[in-house]
Amino acid sequence: MRPLFIISLDALGDTDEAVYKDIPFFKKAIEHGTWIRKFTSIYPTLTYPVHATIVTGRYPDTHGIVNNLKLQPEKLSMDWYWDEPSLQGDSIFRAAHRRGLSTCALCWPVSADGPIDYNLPEIWPRSGESYLEFITEKSSEGYVNELTEAIDLTDSAPTQPEIDDYIVKAALHTFKAHKPDITLMHIVQIDGAKHKFGPYGKEVDAAICTVGQRLETLFQGIDEVTTDYDVMILSDHNQLPTHSEIRLNAWLAAMGYLQADEDGMVASYRAIFFSGNGSAALYAENDNVAAEIEMKLREADIAGIKTIYSTADVPGLRVDPTAKLYVEAEAGYVFGQSAKGDVDGASNPTHYRGNHGYHPNTADYGAMGLFFGPSFQEGKVIEEAALIEFAPTVDAMLALGLEGAETEGMDVLK
Ligand SMILES: [Zn+2]
């Protein structure tokens, strides 16, 4: 089988086109491949739900990854959806495994303990343990040891940009050593730069440049093994500039729906907002409580709230069907999880200068895609496509027998 590389460049946006299209690696790929100038993501535009959509062709209401985190209000720091078994239904990994194709996943979200032959999942120790010891348990057997020897993977790996550097080296090593049929990589430096510095500026441009250079180096190495392979580059979401954090759980606490201690830790609740940064979901003990809160929220006219989606709107958003309401922030604002302090964003400056989680149809907020290799049409430009169409495109290309995808694939294949 012709090997396929699927590379997610986290947070590279359609608005970054002027920067990336002149970087040699991307420029050549645009000339020789199919370029999707705008990929419309899914709601909420958070890394884990979107990556689950990328490998399933389904929305969060059926794949089950509804946020990056699991709602665990009793925990100071909630668990991430790291584990592949959290994913409901079929996926590219599962279908490839059934077909006997070999797969490699490098820092791919929601992949830990998945049916993946060479798997270094995106997980990190959260209480000072050694990265290598922690990750060995959740990676495919023997793979961390192999990488430690082959590419000098060390305990510094969870930091940026070292982790992208490791991923690229690990991809090259693994291809040379095992030639997996499908390699999936998640590159996160651009997302990190946008969070820290805001979505636009020289630091972000530099990160995009570095990523272009890393990919150039990777494929120069792959070319030494074979030139017969396909590449699908895509991003998961863009970011918007942020300055203020709205604390809806502090607002619920003030009205008695939620009880929190002095540190903002939730002790009990009849209703709680679960932050997805640019959006937030309301969970409530029943529909009456949700309706009460919706009415009060509309009356309160809190600065920075752009849209309130009613219970009846939730199914159409294709988000967590157990949520009662969704709220959407205006550009500049995010929702915090804390029940402490003031609800008003003006009192709560954000730590991050860029963020995501907003509705995928928000202006200047698209993702992108770029596919090249012998299987793809050359010199084709698609102005806009939907990310939900990605997995069925891979399915059509490799005849994986992927089950449950909601749409047909894109017209990008020869
Ligand atoms: Zn992301």
Architecture overview:
The structure is a single chain. This protein has 414 residues and is of the alpha/beta class. The chain is built from 14 helices and 17 strands. The strands form four sheets. Strands 4-3-5-1-6-16-2-17 form an eight-stranded mixed β-sheet, sandwiched between helices. Strand 8 (258-260) and strand 9 (266-269) form a beta hairpin. Helix 9 runs antiparallel to helix 10 (202-223). The longest helix is centred in the middle third of the chain and has 22 residues, at 202-223. Zinc ion binds next to loops. This is Ectonucleotide pyrophosphatase/phosphodiesterase. Pfam families: Phosphodiest.
Quick one: how many beta strands? 17
The assigned structural class equals: alpha/beta
Q: Please state the second-level CATH architecture of the largest domain.
A: 3-Layer(aba) Sandwich
CATH fold category name of the largest domain: Alkaline Phosphatase, subunit A
- The radius of gyration over CA amounts to 21 Å
Bound molecules: zinc ion
Q: Number of domains in the coordinates?
A: 2
> Which blocks of ≥5 consecutive residues have pLDDT under 50?
none
Q: Strands of the largest sheet, in order across it?
A: 4-3-5-1-6-16-2-17
The coarse silhouette is: globular
State the fourth-level CATH superfamily of the largest domain. Answer: Alkaline Phosphatase, subunit A
* Main β-sheet description: 8 strands, mixed
Strand residue content:
15-25%
Mean pLDDT across every amino acid position:
96
**Under the CATH scheme, which class of the largest domain?**
Alpha Beta
What share of the residues lie within helices?
25-40%
- Rounded to the nearest angstrom, the distance between the terminal CA atoms is 16 Å
| Tally of contiguous helical segments | 14
